[in-house]
Amino acid sequence: MRVYLPLSPTDIALFISSKSIQASKLYAPTIKFITDNVGHDEEEIEYMLSLLAATDAMQLVSGNPKIGTLLALEIDSKEIAIEETDSIVLTGELVWDRVECLFTSVLDEEGDIELTWYATQEIEDQLAIIALGNK
Q1: What local confidence, expressed as pLDDT, does residue 34 receive?
Q2: Mean per-residue pLDDT of the chain
Q3: pTM assigned to the model
Q4: Does 3.20.170.20 match the CATH number of domain 2-133?
């Protein structure tokens, strides 16, 4: 199952170094979310969830422009402890090996969220670029 985790760039760097993290909320295609969005296909569901996570991610930063960061991860359904409307809580920690990619989010001129995708091997470089931009 693909899930989305909004984190600050600092928290992502800590996740990289420690190789694990405790996550309190992961946006996920829960039964309730899928039922509420029955007219949408899997790709549209994932996009909607990534936008929810991006909105949270942008709340974690104070720069201008606000650049939010979120990770997409793959988890097994047996790892789910609690299922909410649009999110889950896991039974344990997340491990770095589950990370599939990084998204950055910014607001465009119309006020819509624009997501940019980065492969796992690009994450550390992207975090360094974000850090330079926030100085």
Answers
A1: 96
A2: 92
A3: 0.93
A4: yes
